[in-house]
Design brief:
elongated, Rossmann fold, 11 strands
Length: 247
């Protein structure tokens, strides 16, 4: 069956001429974007209940833009003035670049990993005497605390925000040829919103092993998978599939 409509379970990219724009133009398909999950901040009083005193930390580990936003939000709510001496360990360049929203970049001690948390670990290891705070969501990859524990550093996790399932009830009678997922939470949201969901001819596209596992456990048929050596991005995987079925 040909593909004419695609629903991506993420916010629409803000950049012009995104890979999705090129996919739409080349394959003449309709692509809609709708976050299946969203983030909500945890109140400062809940952070205090986790026995977190921001004065006790000399370094912050930032794994995402959300962690940046919610660290500084909590700091403001707690009336904590972040000292200029604070060290920032950012998982990627994108996170480090986003940090400029809150601090004067050239005047701060910022250490940047390449992309994954494991690539940030050697930088953290160099500063083992720091007291690290990891602001995170209520869902955190188990590999992150494992890696920090193995380093024997002084660190504490703080749940500063939560991943919440979005209300998708308005999509109940809307049909798409392809649904695109990037996390197990997206699969969970689909099944929570539509417990009677029947896949039928709907194609499911998934990104990452954890999403593959979640879709498989949910009994969904996976038609499109990324990343692979041949299709390292989701748009490339969609392009390849569409080309093959829309002949």
């Amino acid at each position: 069956m040909k593909v004419k409509t695609i629903l991506v379970s993420q916010p629409e990219p803000k950049i012009e001429n995104s890979p999705y724009s090129r996919l739409i133009e080349k394959e003449k398909v309709k692509v809609d974007f709708r976050p299946f999950i969203h983030v909500e901040g945890v109140e400062a009083k809940n952070v205090r209940q986790q026995k977190i005193d921001l004065n006790n930390f000399t370094a912050i580990i930032l794994t995402s833009r959300n962690s940046v936003d919610h660290f500084f939000r909590i700091a403001e709510e707690m009336r904590f003035k972040v000292p200029d001496t604070m060290k920032y360990f950012c998982q990627s360049e994108a996170v480090a670049y986003y940090l400029q929203k809150y601090v004067v970049y050239r005047k701060r001690k910022i250490y940047v990993g390449k992309r994954t948390f494991n690539e940030l670990v050697p930088l953290i290891k160099k500063y083992k005497d720091e007291k690290f705070l990891l602001p995170s969501s209520d869902t955190l990859k188990v590999t992150v605390p494992q890696a920090l524990d193995e380093l024997n550093v002084d660190w504490k996790r703080g749940i500063f925000y939560k991943t919440v399932i979005s209300d998708l009830s308005d999509l109940r009678n809307v049909y798409y040829d392809v649904l695109v997922f990037f996390s197990p939470s997206g699969i969970e949201s689909l099944l929570k919103n539509f417990p009677d969901f029947e896949q039928n001819d709907t194609r499911i596209a998934v990104f990452g092993n954890s999403t593959v596992n979640a879709a498989t456990e949910a009994g969904l048929r996976i038609d499109i998978k990324a990343p692979t050596p041949e299709t390292p991005s989701m748009t490339m995987a969609l392009q390849k599939y569409i080309t093959s079925v829309n002949k």
